[in-house]
Design a protein that fits this description.
- The chain has 171 residues and is mainly β.
- A hairpin with a 2-residue loop joins strand 2 and strand 3.
- The longest helix is centred in the first third of the chain and has 22 residues.
- It has a single domain, classed as Immunoglobulin-like.
- The chain contains 1 helix and 11 strands.
Length: 171
């Protein structure tokens, strides 16, 4: 009798589990999506050994768009010393709390990721630098393709700042 009851319970448990698995198939299971996203945009690391004192103008060509930014070196304060004529573009200021000769424009950050970027930097005492690079964005779906409406893309590039001097500009 005990054997018959154990067989009945095992058999019943097996069919109950099988019916539950059929009722909730993987195709019908609801996908759980999060609000997680990635840090989108482009970061250009400006590699300069020194930033001579003076006023600076940055002309940034991102695909077919031209953006102008300006700032001065050394930084007068740590309260944001650069400005750009387009929202979503920032010049990263590094070392504002350190000695003045350690102040630097370390990065250019953009919300959009262009395919190509050129950066032209002019300093009011005659120093200038210019370079361009192709951008290779990395795109992905942080929550999976079934959850995200579009890919999240970011990129970073390093750009050497090699100073040249124009005598006719210097005063």
């Amino acid at each position: 009798m005990i054997r018959t009851l154990m067989f009945f319970f095992r058999w019943n448990a097996f069919w109950t589990l099988a019916l539950l698995l059929l009722a909730v198939s993987p195709a019908q299971a609801e996908k759980s999506c999060t609000e997680m996203w990635c840090q989108e945009g482009l970061t250009v690391y400006l590699e300069a050994l020194v930033w001579p004192p003076g006023r600076y103008e940055f002309m940034i060509e991102a695909d077919n768009e031209v953006i102008f930014c300006e700032g001065r070196m050394p930084f007068p304060s740590c309260d944001g010393n650069t400005s750009c004529d387009r929202a979503g573009v920032l010049i990263g200021e590094h070392g504002c709390a350190l000695e003045k000769d350690l102040h630097a424009f370390g990065t250019i950050m953009m919300e959009q990721v262009p395919q190509k970027i050129a950066v032209h930097i002019k300093q009011d005492k005659g120093w200038f630098s210019s370079d361009s690079v192709n951008v290779n964005p990395q795109c992905g779906y942080p929550n999976g393709e079934e959850c995200d409406p579009r890919p999240c893309c970011s990129a970073s590039v390093s750009m050497p700042v090699e100073w040249k001097f124009r005598k006719e500009v210097a005063q």
